[in-house]
Amino acid sequence: MTRRLLAVLLIGAASGCGPSLSEPAGVFSAYVNAYAEADSKTMWSLLSTSARAENRRLQVALIRALSHTDAAIRVHFQGLLGTTADELTKQNEEAFFEWAVGKILYRTRPRLAREYVQALTVVRSEPEGARLWVIYREPVGIEQRLPLVREGSDWRVDEGLVPASALKELEAPLAPSTGTSPTH
Fold this sequence. Notes:
The chain has one domain (21-174). It is globular and about 45 Å long. The chain has helices at 2-15, 24-36, 40-45, 49-66, 71-81, 85-89, 93-108, 110-118, 164-174, and strands at residues 121-128, 131-137, 143-151, 154-157. The chain has 184 residues and is an alpha+beta fold.
């Protein structure tokens, strides 16, 4: 499968044709290129249903942080994000996603995002249950994984803007207090 994935990427790049969403390599290419161009609408269209739900959880966690009863936490997040809970509450899921992509790219600078994406190298793909992991190498040599899942006849990116583990870390200290200590 790895050779096929690399071949699709090379053929698509050489022919100048758009990526095929029925091929994992096409979805990977379309997603990372949309990220580099801050094209949140294309990125949104390539997300799986579960990835969209993860982004909704991120929105809820940020709204909770921005409306926290502890003024220090609330002001920290308002300064960090440059917004308020009221502003994020008014946004539907896709508008929030567009805002979040813009916020991430603002911090990383669009030119750096383009250079980063252009230097990515797809190494292989690994099936795992219903998911297919596209393994790619960053410019500094570190391998990363982007999960894809099939929905209908197309592959979709199956990860929100914030990995699930980081989202859990964000949600945990912001959860409403129950008056009891959490057990680990």
